[in-house]
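Example record for the data management plan.
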Amino acid sequence: MTMTLYSLCGADAARPFSPHCWKVVMALHHKGLDFEERPLAFTAIPTVEGGFSKTVPILRDGQELISDSFRIALYLEEAYPEQPSLFGGQGGVAAARLVEGYSQHVVHGAITKIALVDIHDMLAPTDQAYFRKSREERLGRTLEDMAAGRDAAIAALPAALQPLRHMLAFQPFVGGATPLFGDYILFGALQWLRVTTGAIHLPADDPVSLWFDRCLELHDGVAREVA
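Corresponding structural encoding:
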């Protein structure tokens, strides 16, 4: 039975953009598993699977229903052990948790300052109203205030990525010679930036850009097809 992955899109369902959903897309391809992706607008998420979750990703695998990208990755690792590993052992799970913390507490904050208005503009009107209200309440600033600082945020992005750049001086992927879920965590963040704003806003010769290009080529270039 083909799995169903519920992900996030704006008015154009062909441009899913959630960083957390991209982690799972890449993980499913890494495992070589068949799945159908069903992108949803923000306000449509509570209407699927009996209101199981207010956020995506949500994965339906037969009778199993799982939310949260890391929990989904752990589920895939346990349910499909014969397929390529996402973690390479328990040490890899622990390392991926560290990468997740760095990504969500540092990288996502930097990207939010760049992409917030672009995300708003991708949405249908109903979702624009929801997005503006929820994000302005969460951030304590208007979207317009965030937009005013966009150039400064782009200039600050390389510094936020220095830990990744440092690691890439020693190996081609976060996972070492080949990618693991830690790569997909950080890739998801930069793919979010790429899909919503059209670029990752780094020089082409930056080691992070070169790593990102390698990730775009993974799994027959499936991530490069969305732009």
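Summary line stored alongside the record: The chain is about 55% helix and 10% strand.
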